[in-house]
Amino acid sequence: VVTGEVFDYTSAIRQGRFQTGLLGLHQIENAGMAIALLDTFCQEVGRKLPANILIAQALEETRWPGRLEVVSRNPLMIL
To answer: How far does the signal peptide extend, from start to end residue (predicted)?
Structure first.
């Protein structure tokens, strides 16, 4: 099974282990930026920070069809 990238995230207000739904090490940086922006937005507008479980679910479910998409596992074929 081909999965996304697993990473640890730590900031002043959140820490956790997350996994992206997209392949590529650069997705760790993208996901970390998305988490930081979400937390900053929530603080700025006075909203409660989403639980790590919700963020983890959203990151894992992220897909970009046709970009490093696994179309076959035997033999392994990636678009």
So the answer is: none
The 10s digit of each residue's pLDDT in 11-69 is 999 999 999 998 889 999 999 999 999 999 999 999 999 999 999 999 999 988 877 77
- Kindly state whether residue 69 falls inside one of the protein's structural domains: yes
Is there a domain that residue 12 lies in? yes
20 is a domain residue:
yes
Q: At what angle do helices 26-45 and 52-61 cross, to 10 degrees?
A: 140
CB atoms within 10 A of CB 59: 22
- Full residue range of the structural domain in which residue 53 is found: 6-78
The residue to which tokens 């996901």 are assigned? 31
Cα 64 to Cα 58: distance, rounded to the nearest angstrom: 13
